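Q: A reviewer asked whether we had any structural model of the full assembly, not just the individual parts. We don't, so I'm hoping you can provide one. Inputs are below.
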Amino acid sequence: MAKNPWQQRIRRAEQLAVQHPFAAEILTFYIQVARFQQGLSQKLQGMSVGPSPFLSARPEFAELLAIFPDFLSLVEENAPAQFAQIAEAVRDTPSSSWSDLLNHCWSAHQPPEISDEFLAIVFLQPYAEFVRSRAPLQLDGYTHSLCPFCNRKPTLAVLRPLGDGGRRNLVCGFCLCEWEFRRIVCAGCGQEDQAKLPVYTAEQFPHMRVECCDACHTYIKSVDFTKNGLADPLVDELASVPLDLWAQEHGYAKLHPNLLGL
Ligand SMILES: [Zn+2]
Ligand SMILES: [Zn+2]
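A: Here is a predicted structure for the entire assembly that you could use as a starting point for your response.
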């Protein structure tokens, strides 16, 4: 039996890698990343969280910096070539610049480029989740489309069973905060006209939806738990790459890339 969120994500990624050969490479890499993240999360569990908004002023920062080289090695050895080359380039920079990189990515709210920033975000993700899980967040009455903890745009949406239908929540791909958001509103521009908010589905992924906006030309994928209770938001979003390709070919830009930059 899966015991913690990482083990559940790893198990789901293993299943989907078999079902969807086109996503096998990215999911196999994700499994390596998730194992590393699980280790980092376990290290963090015993620590108390420092109050500073600056990453470098937090007591956990030294611990994070100390294991960053291990993460770079993991990416160099297991990632698709594009990411492995970035990790190699980061390793060749002085370690003092790693501290600047991690600090910058912790406080930047713009989606990371496919670059060293993107690697830093993947590395920091379990830490963001850890800090957020200990933060006194008040979500009642929160109606905005940006993450209430880290102010980033949502990476995906989920439909959770509610009555005869589903309630839509947005999910931050960095700190994994999940918050309720009105179902017929674009999370990118606030458009409410249903005629401008087409939703597409594909037979291949019966529980995935591509929610588009014809006003700002963005899209977000949603995982429909009313159709498949076994799905994992992060992993199923990653595995449904063909939906991203389809949306992008049709002129929609993703609201915020996922953890692997897709
Ligand atoms: Zn967040
Ligand atoms: Zn929009």
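A: Points you may want to mention in the reply: The longest strand covers residues 205-212. The chain has a mean pLDDT of 92.
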